[in-house]
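Re-run with default settings, no changes from the original entry. Doing this only to confirm the output is reproducible before filing.
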Amino acid sequence: MDSYRYIVTCPKGLLPYAQAEIESLGYQPIGRGPAAIEIVGDSRTMYRLNLWLRCAHRVLLKLWEGTAATAADLYHWAVRLPWEEHILPTSVLTVSASVRNVTIRNSLYACQKLKDAIADRLRNRLGKRPDSNGRTRQAVVFLYWRENDVAVYFDTSGVPLSKRGYRRMTAAAPLSEALAAAVLAASGWTGDVPLINPMSGSGTIAIEAAMIARRIPPAWLRTSFSFQHWRGYRPDLWHDEIGRAEQGIVERQLTVIACDTSPEAYRAARVNAHAAGVGGNIRFLHCDYREMPLPPPPATIIVNPPYGIRIGEQHEVAVLYKQLGDWLKRECSGMRCFVLTTPSCAKHVGLHAERRSPFFNADIECRLIEYELYRGSRRTSPDVGT
């Protein structure tokens, strides 16, 4: 079987968790950047990575590297490449790019020049050029251009891997599926103890938790990937991966409890969980978290409270976090709690932090703060965040 180089990209701050997933699938990185990991694998690798990576963004198949100082250079270099080995002229072609070159003011211009080169090459060799309608993502090519160094990739994912397909309804400020999965990985929760998810929003943390515990692949609901429009696509290998995954899904008794005071969030969470196939594994409650019934310890609590980013909310958030800290101290002894929030908000919890792990929620710098809750007060020094 052929050998390929792949670049797995991930959202900001999730590299350690994406790498751990890649290694758990049996692949060792041969290189890494701030938000990307390079590995070597065969064609089966692209199917396995796209099916199983929870914390990643895209799986890129490396095609060629070269040099180009200008957009004209890019075209003349790219039009000579054997695109017919990878792209079907019947596909809809999309080009995306990350460009840092002094001659390029708008990356869309670089995308257009590369798209023209690919289309002209295919028309000259095969008599037909691919369509490009700006909406459909079938064959997706990614351009990485830094000064005079150029690399082109086939984006085997197309739609980002964090788009699982179960989010049918949303609530305010929904948490990314990839970030939720990374938070669960950082917490170490595997389903052996109850999971409590106050302020659950549209249910992402609870849903990702149930999928992890039942070994349901994150891409289980997705029906479309760009690799299905790659000339080397092997449907037999893809369906074999699907079959193996299906055999590994387990029916399991879980205690996952999630609550929110918003009726819209409560409805969204239930709809999304049923779409993901885990509606029967999660107990959703429409109530204040201080009113939710708690299982006996040990248990894990994961909460992503509001951050108070908008002006005028800071005082309300300070009160909310103090109430959360008081509830944890009073009602949750013997449990472990993880709060995903900003360093400034963390100061108001009033509990001693065991550990702080850096994360980003979109562009917001956060910490996943772990509290081990003891009856009474083991230490009285307040958490000061970082």
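The chain has a mean pLDDT of 94. The chain has two domains: 4-155, 177-216+234-372.
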